[in-house]
Structures are given as structure tokens and as C-alpha cells.
Write a structure and sequence with these properties.
homodimer, globular, 7-stranded parallel sheet, 7 strands, alpha/beta
Chain lengths: 274, 274
């Protein structure tokens, strides 16, 4: 199905929105959704839930369902759990984006909580990734990891009506100067107040700045490189009969053969990629 | 190196210790370490840090370094970040366990915070996994996910001197009756107070109950099945030239070919795996 639909995709703009818990991402997603709908454009929202095996999940999904958008036929909302997705969360998210794209949704927002590798990988599905920060993170801005700084195409300073936003922006600018992006992109820093819609128009303008740049096409290619590799990896892994794997595993567990020799053997009878 | 060392491994007992934040896992690990050292046995501790890209990490590692064990030559302590490990965290952890095993460490404790798929995967490195719970989780016990219940070989009710421990145990027993393990194992439930060492001897006895059962060998084989598959997956993925991947990705991004056809082609030029 996805294969047949694929030629009809490539028109949707996918925006990843990530940030620490409490940054107001869901509210911001709702504000952006309202702005997009006000222009009459259809929009998909994918909420990636950081389900904890101890406390349950659906943190984001529930909040989104509380808003008015769920009753609007021009908005598609889907909540995805981070656990138990075949081929990983990024793969599953990518498939949903393709479906929405083929169905004519023009904008797809992917909301994630930046808590782990899974969530960072999801950024590789988006055309552009916005990182949401809020005043009061204190010195935590300095703790922003290179992993996040490489995926942040724009920074959104939410709750910009609160004290501390000047310091936050100053700290962030220092950090960006100290550790500039390897691709030369200088991420715009945009202030907003998601609760009353202030700055949301500027967020969409900031997105446009990136998508109008040369980086946009390069990003799509880089994302597909990542995705092709993981698709191939899953397919190849599935191609080894389970019985063979279990037999080898028992031999390894008994120390009659080492795992490296086993894998070398599988590679030999497998892909000849020279 | 690991290949040469492999025949010298298989003697260490690896114990995974996981649970929600605040369950006192680090304190418990320290108490177990003291008990093991009191018997004169050498022990390795691997702390898997759930580094957040927003707030930094090393939550567990720092706490462990605060204890007295770091100065003891019979204790090896290693902190591992969850991000940016080639082939995943489970792979990297597995390699460290092999090294410690070959070096003659008899017990290896792997401490993780159960927050994501990565951490659950780490359980597949351990011979036995202990899940730590504490009173006051309230109804959260009912939210324990199947993923955790399948990996929990023993339950440790820490802070058992606090009110609510009876209710916690009762709730847990109901849950275990409602959703028994597929392999028939009935996980022991052990009360302890890590801060004063109460019950720590019983924890080691509980570990022995499992390792003395038939499940122990089956677990080792299952773990190696998982590990062999992921080693193979990584090796195969690395075997495709990057230039090929990028070329194909650009074609896919331009919608001149679909990704499924690309991956089919890569699989075809791979000799058969029948």
C-alpha cells in the first residue's frame, strides 16, 4: 500500500517539535494548528508518547485530545507509543507521515518529548525540527547536548512573557556561537507565548526561512539515507530463520563458538556488497 | 580482542536492576555490592545513565561515585550514557560485561532506570533482572506494563519499612495472578531496606533461586539470540557503501523511486539466505 502511495507523496511539510517536559509543546502545537487551520490548510498531528513501562503513557495524546481540534475534519491526530514498534518508532512515524502526505495533508506536526534516542531519531523524519525552550531552565541551557543542537533548525522560546527570557536568549546565543552547526545553518530564535498565540505567525515564518534554504533538500536526502538503512537492516535481520539464530545462540551460550564467528558466517552466506 | 577473550567468559553472573526513578536503586546496588564484597567476591557495576539531551545525564554514575566502593580494587564501576552508542546501548553493555567476565569478575550488576526501549533492551544482557518498587507508588503498580512484567525475574520491594508496603505487595500479587509470565516463572517478591541492609541477603538468595532453575540456561540462549541478531544487523547495515545509500536517498527524496523498491534491490544483490 505504502509503495503504491509513495509517488503521491512529497508535498507535505513535516515539522518536528521537541523540547523538555514542561516547555508547553502541546499548547504550542495547538496554537500552530489553529494558525494553519485559519488559512484553510489541512494538518496532521502526531504525538509521540514517551510511555514509561512503570507509569503508563499517553502524556501528549491525552492533552491533545483535550483541545478542540479533535472534532475538526481538517485535523488528523494520532498518538504513537514509543514502545514495541517494529523497526523502531522512527520507522512507524515515517509510515504515518507518508500516509498523511498521500492523503493531502499539507502540514504534519510531530510532537516529541526529547528524552531519548528514539525521540532524537524521530527528528530524522521531519523536514525541519523546532526545539522549544522556556525561561527558568536556568543554567540548563548550557547542558543542551550536541545531539539536540545538531537537530535544532529553529529555537522557539515559549512563555516569552515570563521573566528570564532575555537571559535565556542571551545564553542560547552564546552557546550557538561557541558551538556553531556543522552545516553552517544559523537557527533563528523566535519568542512566543503559546497560550495566547503571540509569536505563532513568526514561528511559521521561521519555518519558511529554513524550507526556502538549500538545506531543505539536503535534509530530505539525509533523512532518507537514515530511513533506507534502517529499512534494510530490519529486512535483513528478518531474513535469517529464527531456528538458525536460536541454534547458534545456544552454541554461543555454551561457549562452543564465539558470537563474532557466527556473525561472520552469516555475512558470508549473505549480502555480497562489493 | 573480545573474540579472543570469549572462550574465557561465561562464568560471571549478571544481575540487571531496574525500576522507576526514586526507587532507591543506587542505594540497593551499593548494599548488594557490600554484601558481595563481604564474601570476598569481585564485582562489577555498570550504571546505565538515562542522559537527557536537555538536562545532561550521569544521574546514576554520580551517585555511585559518591559511595565508598570506588576506592576498592575488587569493584569495577563503569557509567554508560544511553546516547550515541554504536549498535545501541545493549550492545555496548554486553561488550563491557564480556570484558569483566573474562577478567574474572564473578558478579556484574547492571543498574538502569526503566524509562525507554533502550533500558528494556539492557535487560536482555542480564542473566536475571530484578525490578525495584517502593511503597507510595499508589495505583501505579497497576500501570506496570507487560514489557516490564515479562523481564522481571524477581521483585524487590525497597523501603519496606515505610507504610504502604503491605498494600504494594498485595497489589503486585494480584497483578501477577492476573497476568502470569508466559514461561511459567513465578517471580519471588522480596522486601528490603537498602539504606540499612535489611533483606539484602534474601535478595541474593532470590537471585540464586532463579539461577538454579531451568530458566537460567534458556535465558542465556534467548539473550544471545537477541544479541546475535543485532550484531548481524549492524554489520550488514555497515556493509552498504555510504555513497550508494546517499544516491538512492536523493532519488527517493525526489520521488523518482520508492524506498521499498530500493531495499528490495539491495536484498536481491545479496546472495540467498535460504
Amino acid at each position: 500500500l505504502l509503495k503504491e502511495l509513495f509517488p503521491h507523496t512529497g508535498r507535505a511539510l513535516t515539522i518536528g517539535i521537541t523540547g523538555p517536559p514542561g516547555a508547553g509543546k502541546s499548547t504550542l502545537v495547538n496554537a500552530i494548528a489553529s494558525a494553519v487551520r485559519a488559512k484553510g490548510r489541512r494538518l496532521g498531528i502526531i504525538a509521540v508518547d514517551p510511555t514509561s513501562p512503570f507509569t503508563g503513557g499517553a502524556i501528549l495524546g491525552d492533552r491533545i485530545r483535550m483541545t478542540g481540534h479533535h472534532a475538526d475534519a481538517g485535523v488528523f491526530i494520532r498518538s504513537m507509543a514509543t514502545r514495541g514498534q517494529l523497526g523502531g518508532l522512527a520507522a512507524a512515524t515515517s509510515d504515518v507521515v507518508l500516509l498523511l502526505d498521500a492523503a493531502g495533508f499539507e502540514i504534519v506536526l510531530i510532537e516529541t518529548v526529547g528524552v531519548g534516542q528514539d525521540e532524537t531519531d524521530v527528528a530524522r523524519v521531519a523536514d525541519i525540527t523546532a526545539v522549544v525552550l522556556v525561561p527558568g531552565m536556568g543554567d540548563d541551557v548550557q547542558a543542551l547536548k550536541a545531539g539536540i543542537m545538531e537537530i535544532a533548525d529553529i529555537y522557539l522560546l515559549n512563555k516569552a512573557d515570563q521573566p528570564g527570557v532575555d537571559k535565556l536568549e542571551r545564553d542560547l546565543r552564546v552557546l550557538l556561537k561557541l558551538a556553531p552547526r556543522q552545516d553552517g545553518w544559523e537557527p533563528p530564535i523566535i519568542r512566543c507565548v503559546a497560550t495566547d498565540g503571540t509569536g505563532v505567525a513568526e514561528v511559521l515564518t521561521g519555518v519558511g526561512t529554513f524550507t526556502g534554504s538549500d538545506l531543505h533538500a539536503a535534509r530530505a536526502t539525509a533523512n532518507w539515507s537514515f530511513r533506507l538503512r534502517s529499512m534494510f537492516r530490519e529486512r535483513v535481520a528478518q531474513s535469517i530463520p529464527s531456528a538458525d539464530v536460536e541454534l547458534a545462540a545456544a552454541e554461543v551460550a555454551a561457549r562452543r563458538i564465539d558470537p563474532f564467528t557466527v556473525v561472520d558466517g552469516w555475512l558470508e552466506r549473505a549480502p555480497n556488497q562489493t
